[in-house]
């Protein structure tokens, strides 16, 4: 059976081909009853106008944007991004909205990307990797772009915010380790300008009562390795290290084993984000599952609702789960000052 054409729609609706085109493009004024006949005819025939015609009819791009301002190497190694993007696509698919993804190497590149989206390429944007005081909030408001912020942003904002409490699992991890006798517990963070890194670091300091064993990394494997080495070189070294993501934790695990530390007997290690490999390491890595797929889907749904005119608000999601595994299963070792294991 031949696919329906614009001519078939015109014939069924009793109008010209030009009128069908104008009904979708909006270039000329078409009466409401005539437009309704055109749309009903198209639906009955199963005719779908081109993307450009639908976009003109609704004055929308039928796309939303995501700008990622990270080194591509870090993006490639961090399991959060593929799952989060898959969740976004899942939330957008039913509405037949495309995801426009751009990696920006500088602030000026970010600004150009957002301006381009505001000038018709996207109907709204998702803002991730929030900074504690983020210039993008005011910038996007000035551009008039609808946006959804992912993270517990505490500053004033005109946009919806999808947030979770990452501090809870940090406290639970410390409680678990203390129950095993650990007192010297270190934390290798992500960049502390990020909302989520700061929230976890703040919870750590509140629980531990000191910043002595706090080290700032960049989420990359190299920083996880190097900072683990720095911590293990201390005269009074930690007996446990908590990392801001599993990429750094896995690198730390590799470094520790290369120096003949037994995990967890000599050193307990835990990550965050629960990479798909973490449960299959030897020993299996304790981590916090953050369900980035669900975060992505909910974020997409909130953004689509806001584009359709919903009132922006804060959406709290509970999708973090502490997964205790072998890397934190042993009692804390007895260590004499001077670095003995």
Automatic annotation (TrEMBL):
<protein>
    <submittedName>
        <fullName>HTH-type transcriptional repressor CytR</fullName>
    </submittedName>
</protein>
<feature type="domain" description="HTH lacI-type">
    <location>
        <begin position="4"/>
        <end position="58"/>
    </location>
</feature>
<dbReference type="GO" id="GO:0000976">
    <property type="term" value="F:transcription cis-regulatory region binding"/>
</dbReference>
<dbReference type="Pfam" id="PF13377">
    <property type="entry name" value="Peripla_BP_3"/>
</dbReference>
<dbReference type="InterPro" id="IPR028082">
    <property type="entry name" value="Peripla_BP_I"/>
</dbReference>
<dbReference type="Pfam" id="PF00356">
    <property type="entry name" value="LacI"/>
</dbReference>
<dbReference type="InterPro" id="IPR010982">
    <property type="entry name" value="Lambda_DNA-bd_dom_sf"/>
</dbReference>
<dbReference type="InterPro" id="IPR046335">
    <property type="entry name" value="LacI/GalR-like_sensor"/>
</dbReference>
<keyword id="KW-0238">DNA-binding</keyword>
<dbReference type="InterPro" id="IPR000843">
    <property type="entry name" value="HTH_LacI"/>
</dbReference>
<keyword id="KW-0805">Transcription regulation</keyword>
<keyword id="KW-0804">Transcription</keyword>
<dbReference type="GO" id="GO:0003700">
    <property type="term" value="F:DNA-binding transcription factor activity"/>
</dbReference>
């Amino acid at each position: 059976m031949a696919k329906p054409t614009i001519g078939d729609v015109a014939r069924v609706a009793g109008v010209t081909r030009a009128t069908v085109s104008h009904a979708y493009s909006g270039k000329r004024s078409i009466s409401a009853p005539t437009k309704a006949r055109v749309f009903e005819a198209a639906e009955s025939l199963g005719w779908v106008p081109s993307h450009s015609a639908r976009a003109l009819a609704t004055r929308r791009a039928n796309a939303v944007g995501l700008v990622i301002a990270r080194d591509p190497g870090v993006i490639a190694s961090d399991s959060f991004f593929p799952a989060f993007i898959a969740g976004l696509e899942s939330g957008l698919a039913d509405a037949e909205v495309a995801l426009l993804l751009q990696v920006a190497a500088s602030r000026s590149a970010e600004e150009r990307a957002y301006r381009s989206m505001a000038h018709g390429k996207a109907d709204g944007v998702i803002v991730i990797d929030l900074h504690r005081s983020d210039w993008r909030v005011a910038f996007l408001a000035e551009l008039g772009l609808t946006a959804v912020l992912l993270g517990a942003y505490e500053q004033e904002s005109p946009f919806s915010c999808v947030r979770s409490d990452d501090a809870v699992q940090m406290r639970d991890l410390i409680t678990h380790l203390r129950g095993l006798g650990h007192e010297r517990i270190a934390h290798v963070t992500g960049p502390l300008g990020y909302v989520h890194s700061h929230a976890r670091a703040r919870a750590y300091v509140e629980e531990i009562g000191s910043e002595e064993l706090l080290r700032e990394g960049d989420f990359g494997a190299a920083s996880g390795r190097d900072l683990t080495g720095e911590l293990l070189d201390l005269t009074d070294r930690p007996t446990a290290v908590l990392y801001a993501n599993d990429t750094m934790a896995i690198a730390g695990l590799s470094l520790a084993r290369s120096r003949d530390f037994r995990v967890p007997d000599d050193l307990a290690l835990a990550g965050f984000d629960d990479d798909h490999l973490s449960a299959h390491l030897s020993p299996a890595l304790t981590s916090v599952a953050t369900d980035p797929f669900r975060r992505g889907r909910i974020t997409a749904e909130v953004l689509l609702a806001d584009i359709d005119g919903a009132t922006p608000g804060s959406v709290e999601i509970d999708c973090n789960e502490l997964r205790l595994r072998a890397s934190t299963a042993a009692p804390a070792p007895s260590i004499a000052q001077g670095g003995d294991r």
